[in-house]
Each structure stands twice: as structure tokens, then as C-alpha cells.
Amino acid sequence: MLTLFHADTAVCAAKVRVTLAEKNIPFESRMIDLGRGDQFKPEYLAVNPNAAVPVIIHDGKWLNESTVINEYLDDAFANPPLRPSDAYGRARVHLWTKREDSIHDCINTMTVAVVFRADLLDKPPEVRRARYESIPDAAKREKWRQLLELGVDSPIVGEALGRFNKLFRDMEQALAEGPWLCGEAFTLADIGFISFFYRMEAMEAKGIWEKHYPRVTDWFNRCKARPSFRTAIADYIPAPRAAHFTRVSEPLRETIERRFDEAMQAS
Ligand SMILES: N[C@@H](CCC(=O)N[C@@H](CS)C(=O)NCC(=O)O)C(=O)O
Fold it and tell me: Is the minimum distance from the CB of 33 to ligand 1 under 6 angstroms?
């Protein structure tokens, strides 16, 4: 039996749900409410001391880190395979999945700058301060402070948009060779980025690839056409949450696109 500790809108957890859906693996669902702070409760810290999702427990064996979990699932559940069988093919998939943590950091940057900042904007300064001062990691705390202060005008956002541009450029080139990032077959390389793109789309930011990268645009549409997209990602997002994302993001759409164009020109 497989148990998944996850959260509805968490992009890393969605990566694992897509793999479970593509392989048709049944699982027991244990939802963690990140907004309510369930990840910091002692009973969850006993599951994952990093206070994050996802975690799986499979036949008594514990694993965290979404990319590692996906590789494990692909090894433990043979069909359908989500990586090639040859060494070079697997290495090429790994080149993509290795980038996911850095891109996840950029997704986090955008979400804090756009959505979490909007949520806190009308709160008293001491409430805003308390939100980042409670973060134990000093670098993350400072990142939140700057993003809550400057929002999408922050240099951290410019840096994230530059990294997105580099990713889209590399994807556009790879997709000249086939419909998926590693050629003819849909693999873990594709799976790793789908929920990230979905989050950017939910933040009204899809213009940053749609205006410049046609193959990336088609690739994301192909990903969304797979049944796993609906069952593992879209169906999990509560409608009021999706509407909230749209409401707070829409006023920032043009600024984000302009800052992306600046990042493109600078690279
Ligand atoms: N590198 C980890 C990142 C895990 C992570 O940061 N998960 C986020 C959700 S996508 C989380 O649980 N955040 C906890 C929080 O917001 O306090 C992975 O890929 O699994």
C-alpha cells in the first residue's frame, strides 16, 4: 500500500500525483493544510522534519523530495515506464529533473510576490512582519521580507524571470526534436514542470512563454490534454482559490510581462 502526504495546491505534491495517475497507482491520501500550518505540527514533523510535502510511505518505506519520489515510483512500478531504459536516455531525463529545484524556487518567488503579498497587503505592518519573522531559515526570511516589501518590482523577481527565460529557451530547442522534452515519449522530465507551468498560468503569467516560445506553448497544451492533468492537478484546486489567484494576479500581468521582456533582453 502507498500513502501520499500532500496538499491540494502544492506544486511539488502535484508532480507526484501526476506520476501516480500516469501509472495508475492507487494511494491513500493524507492531506496537509499548509495554509493552516499543519506542516509544523509535531505529528507531521514526525513524518517529515522538513515541514514540507510531498512524502510517500510505500510498504513501510519512507521517502521525501518529489523528484526522488518520482524516480522511485518509476522503478518500483514498471508500467508504463516514464524513463527510457538506456543509460543515456535516463541521463537526459535527469538533466531536466535536476533543474526542478531551482525552478521551484522561482515559482515560490512569484507566488510570494504576487499572491501571498496581496493576501497581506491590507494587514497591519506588524502582521506582515510576523509572517516572515517566523521563518526559521535566514535566507528564506530575507527573501520573503524583500518580496513582501517590493512585490514584482523586486530584483529577486527579475532574477527568477531570467531563469524562466533560460528554461523556456532550452525547452524550445529540445522540443524541435519531438513532442516531449526527451523526444517521442512522455517522461518524468515533462512531469516535473507541468504543475509549475500551471501555477504560472493561474497567476495570469502564461504570456511570458506564449508570446515568445511557440513550441513550449504547444507542449504545455499537450500536457494539459492528458487525463492526468485534470485528475492530478486541476481537480485538486478549489474553485475559490483559483478565482482568488486570478483576482490578485490580473492587475500585475503587464508588469510581469514587461519585466520578463527586460530579463530576456539582458540575457
Ligand atoms: N524540494 C522539495 C520541496 C518541497 C516543498 O518545498 N514543498 C512545499 C509545497 S510545493 C511545502 O510543503 N511548503 C511548506 C510551506 O509552505 O510551509 C520537493 O521537491 O519535494
Answer: no
